[in-house]
Amino acid sequence: MNFGPVQQSIAASLASWGVPHSGSELAALLILLLIPFGVAFSIAGVAQYFERKVSAVVSRRFGPSTAGGEGILRLVVNLAFFFLPAATRARLEKTVANLPGVKQILFVVSYLGLGQIVADGVKMFTKEDILPRDADRVLFRGATYILLLASFVALVAMPISQNFYLSDFSVAALYVSAVTGVGVVGLLMAGWGSNNKYSLLGGVRAVAQIVSYEIPIALTIAAVAMWSGTLSLHGMIAAQYHPGFLSFLGWNLFQSPFFLILSVVYYTAGLAECNRTPFDFSESEQELIGGVGTEYSGLRWGLIFIAEYTDMILVGGIFASLFLGGYQSPLGEQWIVALPPAWEALVHGAIFCVKFLASIGVMMWLRWTLPRFRIDQVMRLAWVRLIPLSLICLFLLAASMLWFGHDGQVAQVIHGRFVSSLVVRPEGWQTASVWGVTILVVAVLVVLAKKFGDPKPMPEDVRKALVGGEG
Fold first, then answer.
1. How high is the pLDDT of residue 267?
2. Per-domain residue ranges for the chain?
3. Which of 18, 239, 311, 452 could form a disulfide with 228 if both were Cys (CB 3.0 to 4.6 A apart)?
4. CA-CA distance, 146 to 131, in Å (whole number)?
């Protein structure tokens, strides 16, 4: 199992500390444990806290402010000194709380409600795991593992940096698109295995929704693969490298207006893949109580939502890789590539985290801003809007590539350790002309729609109710 130069650096450090020849396997094990426990679980817990804060800001509330530092301190003291009598532990807790600086820290933790993260985790791990009497035990219990498996296995292809990655293979983008579809099986298993009609309806909705939105996602990935000449995520990132200080000029988002449209298509479909508002039909509490999670409790209930937050990380990471240069810095990418492997992995990893965390923040903002769509509106959006729009953008992007390739440059891009496939590099005037023509066409279509559009007439009974009678 090879995780890149960072694994070799960790193995070399372990060898210098006297660890025997199995240091490479131990380094791989440490990396494997870091991904679910150090990244996915921690980000899921912190994201839950920030989601509460975002919802409070939108609703003009303060948010979590009850679970404070005293509870965390009490938990740590009771776990560390469980062998002492209860009265002794209480005195020890009071002594620690009155230490210089500790009281101020506890006040800040309580004021910000940071103890809510620990409270949610403790409740999730200690709450009783209830199995419904008539539920299918195999499907009910196996659904959570399938959902986690689909999310975590997809993270294997995530390009974190040039020197730190779990796997680098030539069809990584296709692999991610295929593996994430396995989550549909888990949702349907949870709905059917619960023996609850609301859960079953949530599972069926999830299947119809995710299968539909997989198509625009696949078309978007096909467009980026066509532009980059590869299905490797590292290759796609390398193709977006632009030498010079303004590194973001090479990102796909700024290369063509069709990529700008496709980025919106991908992000919208990604929201549906994650079952996030306005597409959260597998767990819409107004209609289906808790949807597929209605009968789950305790840790199994928490694992379903950890899988959801992991999917949000995955969608944000793939979005950044396809359109925002992946782990590349927007300014001054050259000096980062020249850093030693460990420092390069640290800097690029931090940049990549900022990008997908910003994507998660937008998802949270949308959840508390947009109302939930109806199921027919969700399906119409996929089949009547997004799929035709992605096909049109794919065709126009291919036509523009033919024009660029005829008059422009076709070359390989060297980005640190990675070399891209043969990619088209349009001239500046070509890029400007495509953007100008596209903006002009869109403006003309908007004006024509406003002028010659045929709005639906107001129903007669509604008109009478508004005007207050026959007049």
1. 93
2. 137-408
3. 239
4. 18
